[in-house]
Amino acid sequence: MSRVLWTAWVLGTVTSLSKEGAPDQASSLSCDPTGVCEGHSRSLTSVPAGLTAAVRSLDLSNNEITYLGNSDLRGCVNLRALRLEANKINTIEEDSFFPLGSLEHLDLSYNNISSLSSSWFRPLSSLNFLNLLGNPYKSLGQTPLFSQLTTLRILKVGNTYSFTEIQKTDFVGLTFLEELEIDATNLQKYEPKSLKSIQNISHLALRMKQPDFLLEIFIDLLSSVEHLELRDTHLNTLHFSKASINETNTLIKKWTFRNVKITDVSFSELAKLLNYVSGVLEVEFEDCTLHGLGDFDVSDMGEIGSVSGIETLTVRRLEIPFFYSFYDLSSVYSLTGRVKRITVESSKVFLVPCLLSQHLKSLEYLDLSDNLMVEEYLRNAACEHAWPLLQTLILRQNRLKSLEKTGEILLTLKNLINLDISKNGYLSMPETCQWPEKLKYLNLSNTRIHSLTRCIPWTLEILDISNNNLDSFSLTFPQLKELYISRNKLKTLPDASFLPMLQVMRISRNTVNTFSKEQLDSFQRLMTLEVGGNNFICSCEFLSFTQEQQALAQILIDWPDNYLCDSPFYVRGQRVQDTHLPASECHRVALVSAVCCVLFLLILLTGILCHRFHGLWYLKMMWAWLQAKRKPRKAPQRDLCYDAFVSYSERDSHWVENLMVQELEHFNPPFKLCLHKRDFIPGKWIIDNIIDSIEKSHKTIFVLSENFVKSEWCRYELDFSHFRLFDENNDAVILILLEPIEKKAIPQRFCKLRKIMNTRTYLEWPTDEAQQEGFWLNLRAAIKS
């Protein structure tokens, strides 16, 4: 019984986990508000459940889906794009796409679909893109697959290994395609007129390894294809026969050979084909290999005559394994007389024979980028009467090193207007050079030059000197309309007086840190400016100019995203448009003025407060205290010279000198008093005299009166005693009240004096003569104590 329960529990757990799996798959989709759902590369094994009409685009590519059922996409009635490539789909039910009447893009490439059904595509009335590449079907079926797809514009079918047959019914119902790609690498059977049912194809890309059926296909396409592209084909066995072609007029305007292998013989056959059929204007070879020596049969060349009509020839990355034994190309000279545009890129070309150049009488455009041209062989190519109509010459990324020689060599090109010699190693520039007189455009970018000289022709209208090491621009170009000088080391915009006709300037990624309205206004014809990517100093003036000029956005093509502040440091990395500095940065004059006014008011207020609350007195007190701190706390007994120092007001001198001095100094034994009139040392600072006299006296007598409180020097004497004597808590001070003084008459700053007068006994001068004798007795006793 327990075993049965255990089994039931395990089954229940597995069931619950399987139920939880479906929500996990649905949740693996990420959808935005517009209905675009992404679910690629998430290891899904089936189409997520719960898809609704809100889904507009569904990407389920690169998963593990193997099966499409009738109900998987039932709710996606508004689906526009469905991507199911790179799964493992091997079964699609008949009505899987039935709800998808609005579907425009369907990609089923690189799955395991071995047979195709027309019922899948019948409901897809809006479909314009269908990709069925990379599935292992052998053919497109016995019934027309695409007859109902009247809106289809791009179709891709076939595979590398198993697709072996193209039938008459395959493309029935298709009348116009913008692009048709057929991977028939292993094609073994082609029914004539299979592709003729399509009335018009803008671009047909045909991948086939052997050219066995190439002529038959070519015949069917003569009147329907505009651009024929042949891929991954070995043309070794190609043989052209006039008898196989009944019509010579063709719709084909361009023929592209991509990754095609050609021999000397097959090149001759191909040339015959192109010559016999009129209308081809452009031929392109890309990533092709020529297994030969250029030994084209002379008799064959005689039949060819000239390839009429071809105006553009493009060769990119052509490989010739035995190029070192190659012939002089004289056999193809006759094919080039009417060619107007030639591009030969990345093909290790180091020489163009003079005779070939002279045969290119109609050539207007020549691009020899990324090759091995040097001045010595360029002189041979640009010989006398070479390229008589050439207007544009591109020698980008070759091995040229002398700007002076390059200009001199090209003097033979009387009609040359545009010259691109960028990405060459010129490094320096001579003072003077010679150039073709009609030259208007010159590209010297990426040449590592450090400075500009008069070597550059002053008649230019367009000059590109970007990505060099220039730190200044001081040449005059009266006709220059466009200047490209990005990625250099310029610190400021060029002077407008050098460029009076300038309309376009690109000076991004230099070291420009600012520009002003005046600078821009000086370029009167400027319509386009690019200054982004520089390290801008976001000063108040610069920010004010850039943020307030609404019309600036019409001139600055990279505004505002590429304009970032570099300083001040606290706004580094911010967009110039969004930066705002504090008022202290932008109104310094007003700020300094305000600060000065505030300081003046503070000083004035401080002066008033000092006057009102005796601030000056406190300063003097502090000075006196500092002076006192330099002296010993108490003079030794042997250094005392006086019994008492008398501090009094000059207005009380009559009482001091006539009464006190007589009573004390003429007493027996006599007291020795220190009076400022008599005992101060002449020439010595008065503060020092006061301090020394107090310190050399056993007692200090203060004769207090209204006059004393008002006396400046009495205050100093009292100030010092205030610190020096009162703080020591001794009895060295004797107070004599010469006349009654109200407490409020004593300044508040003499807080300790007021306290002492409240807490200590002081001598009061009696007005009654009978009591005066007792006063003198008490005073003598106080001095002796």
Automatic annotation (TrEMBL):
What name goes with this protein? Toll-like receptor 2
In which organism is this protein found? Answer: Suricata suricatta
Report the subcellular localization. Cytoplasmic vesicle, Phagosome membrane; Membrane raft
An example of a Pfam family matching this protein is: TIR
Q: In the record, which residues are listed under signal peptide?
A: 1-16
Q: Which SMART domains match?
A: LRR_BAC, LRR_TYP, LRRCT, TIR
SS bond list: C31-C37, C354-C383, C433-C455
Give TM regions. Answer: 589-610
